[in-house]
Amino acid sequence: MLNKKPKLTVVGAGPGDVDLITLKAIKALKKADVVLYDALVNEELLEFINPNAEQIFVGKRRGCYKYQQEQINELIVARAKSHGHVVRLKGGDPFIFGRGAEEMEYAAGFGVETAMVPGISSSLAVPAYQNIPVTKRGSAESFWVITGTTKEHKLSNDVALAAKSNATVVVLMGMGKLPEIVKLFQQENKNNLPVAIIQDGTTSREKVGIGTVDTILEIVKKNELSNPAIIILGEVVKHQQDLKRIQEKAAIENLLLA
Which of 92, 103, 116, 194 could pair covalently with 122 via S-S, beta carbons 3.0-4.6 A apart? Predict the structure, then answer.
């Protein structure tokens, strides 16, 4: 008979770079009896898991599902009842398009205690790693984080609303809908708005394409960019080049003064 109380802790693994996981997340992994992890989780993080814990890869990438969501929900409850503390390790932050809330609700319905450890969201960290701030005084007073694909596999209506604003727009899971996104911004006469697309952000596999609303589709094709990637639309994208110019100017001035 299991003496451990059934518990689920949903843990954010961060955007990809191992160093961006939180201390609280590592502590949860060390206390886990079972860990269920996704495809977007850096496998180096598995080294932090309690060596006696069961590890289960539950997959989940577009077009390739090792487990369906319903099966994952059932597995969480079954392992919590049989083993005790289940950690559900998810990429980024589980409450930002990560379905962490759904898994917690399902487990709670079966009397399983639940807890959540936030993760650093890719929507903020991936642009930051490329020196792109989602807000910047004089460029953007707010930002939208929008899913590119809804439950019905359509482009979110919020993208059209965001295109009308002056805010930075960050689209997750939107590469398949990029032509539609471009069209919406063109309809708002934002043809020259800067756009950045970052694939596998914060990892050694990172690839970047930078252009404008009018040029980004060709840049994606040229650079062979694909999922998993983040789309950033806004004047803040210019900060990357602005910073580079300032650094180059300072370097030249230092050489002249030397």
Answer: 92
